[in-house]
Amino acid sequence: MIATAIALPKADVHVVRKSHFGDKRKFEIYSGFKVREAVESRRGKSVTFPDLASGIADDTYAKRLALSAAAKTLPIANGPKLALWRGEVRKVLGEVVA
């Protein structure tokens, strides 16, 4: 991340935390680190990527499904969960992608 900021000094650098490892409180090392301050002082953002339900993640991985295919082929109960997760992903990544 630091190398990217040095190589591309005018680029916006964003950090995406993966919530599979816990909510943003679990990232206390990053949160208290000078790199976060540097990223955010240069218009960068720190966002948390939502965790996909383990049943859906396991099925898509085991069956090697794209999420669009999973929405059509996974058990009906997983459809709303997947749609909700995809909406959360759009919202989170929409903060950093113009």
Short key terms for the protein model shown above:
2 strands, 98 residues, mainly alpha, two-stranded parallel ribbon, single chain
What report would you give on this structure?
This protein has 98 residues and is mainly α. The protein has two domains: 1-49, no CATH class; 51-98, no CATH class. The chain is built from six helices and two strands; from the N terminus they run H-E-H-H-E-H-H-H. A two-stranded parallel sheet has the order 1-2. Helix 5 packs antiparallel against helix 6. The mean pLDDT is 82.
Poorly predicted runs are none
Order of helical and strand elements:
HEHHEHHH
How many domains is the backbone divided into?
2
* End-to-end Cα distance: 20 Å
Sheet of most strands: 2 strands, parallel
Name the overall outline: elongated
Strand content: 5-15%
What is the averaged pLDDT score? Answer: 82
Helix content: 40-55%
**Radius of gyration from the alpha-carbon trace, in angstroms:** 16 Å
Structural class: mainly alpha
Instruction: Tell me the strand order in the biggest sheet.
Output: 1-2
Q: Work out the number of β strands.
A: 2
How many DSSP H or I helices?
6
